[in-house]
Specification:
The strands form 2 sheets. This protein has a 7-stranded mixed sheet with strand order 1-5-6-10-9-8-7, with helices on both faces. By secondary structure, the protein is an alpha+beta fold. 31% of the residues are buried. The longest helix has 36 residues. The chain binds 3,4-dihydroxyphenylalanine (DAH). The site of 3,4-dihydroxyphenylalanine has 12 residues, from strand 8, strand 9 and strand 10. 3,4-dihydroxyphenylalanine binds next to strand 8, strand 9 and strand 10.
Length: 341
């Protein structure tokens, strides 16, 4: 009986090789496994054997049956896969390909870079790990100057290797003003978008890591009217053609005079609303005419050249543009937030 079973197995394996479609596969299945199929007939004869042989052959027959069924199922799968790959159904919805996206701060930074490029400003970057000199001293903020307390600084334990200066995480993109002057000289037009750090406790409007966008323009006979013109154009670019600029005096050590700049609120056109906290104005920048001491630190003669500088809170611009009410979203890494842009 075992030899008969072996013969069945050989025949089966031979015939299944020739199977080309589902129809002949189920014919083959019937031939071997149906109630009157070859295997079933043999298994039915088991009862005529004596107890010992019945057990032995029974076991053999069962495992053979399972083995053949497995081959059958595998062939069935192979056939159906071949079939589906042949057929293209153009009515099926496409497979969604998930791609990454730009961070909202990057989107707005790029837009502003493009805008300033049209005014002839190059976009440059400065170091985030900075010496105390470029972040403060060169900007007319000497050691122990009270203006240092305006910003809570993260100081670093080690010193700058060549100059033995104190190191810190830059508190403002203004750190790149003097670096840019030393590298490019005058005349100069540059913006510096970048990451800054302050030892602040965080809430919906404050983060220890945030973005600013600095701008400087140096040339002969530059005055406040030039500054005003550039900022007004920037306001129109950001918030539409009816945007107005308002400036009020504010002290910043590296500019004289120093000003605080506000744009009329794009949502209520100055009438007062939730976004501008009913003031009609959005406070977004600091600016002024570059202090002669800063020009000197940058190797530029203040008798010949003058210039203006401004610094935007870049996160704030992005928050206003997309109506984001918590600055902490930016570094949360939360995909539910990031996927919206
Ligand atoms: N760096 C200043 C701050 O972080 C902002 C600023 C004010 C930048 C006046 C300037 C400026 O370039 O002229 O508060």
């Amino acid at each position: 009986m075992k030899t008969k079973l072996e013969k069945i197995k050989q025949d089966f394996l031979q015939s299944i090789k020739e199977v080309k479609d589902q129809k002949s596969l189920s014919d083959l299945e019937d031939k071997y496994f149906s109630r009157k199929g070859e295997l079933s007939l043999i298994l039915r004869q088991l009862k005529d054997l004596d107890m010992k042989t019945r057990q032995e052959v029974g076991k053999f027959a069962n495992s053979l049956k399972n083995e053949l069924k497995e081959v059958l199922e595998k062939t069935r799968k192979d056939l159906s896969r071949e079939k589906t790959s042949d057929v293209v159904d153009p009515t099926l919805p496409g497979e969604k390909i998930s791609t990454g996206a730009l961070h909202p701060i990057t989107i707005v930074r790029k837009e502003i870079e493009d805008f300033f490029a049209t005014l002839g400003f190059m976009s440059i970057d400065g170091p985030e790990l900075e010496s105390d000199y470029y972040n403060f001293t060169a900007l007319n903020v000497l050691a122990h100057h009270p203006a240092r307390d305006m910003q809570d600084t993260f100081y670093i334990d080690s010193k700058d290797e060549d100059k033995q200066a104190d190191l810190l995480m830059r508190t403002q993109t203004s750190n790149t003003q003097v670096r840019a002057m030393l590298k490019h000289g005058a005349p100069l037009r540059a913006i510096v978008p970048g990451r800054c750090f302050r030892c602040e406790s965080t809430d919906a409007r404050h983060e220890h890591t945030f973005y600013q966008l600095e701008g400087i323009l140096i040339d002969e006979n530059i005055n406040l009217a030039h500054l005003k013109a550039v900022l007004e154009e920037t306001g129109k670019f950001l918030y539409g053609p009816n945007t107005k600029l308002r400036t009020r005096p504010k002290y910043f050590p590296f500019v004289e005079p120093g000003l605080n700049g506000e744009f009329s609120c794009f949502l209520c056109q100055g009438k007062g609303c939730r976004v501008c906290k009913n003031s009609g104005w959005l406070e977004v920048l600091g600016c002024g005419l570059i202090h002669p001491n800063v020009l000197r630190a940058g190797g530029i003669d203040p008798e010949k050249y003058s210039g203006f500088a401004f610094g935007f809170g870049l996160d704030r611009l992005v928050m206003l543009k997309y109506d984001i009410n918590d600055i902490r979203n930016f570094h949360s890494g939360d995909l539910r937030f990031l996927k919206q842009f």
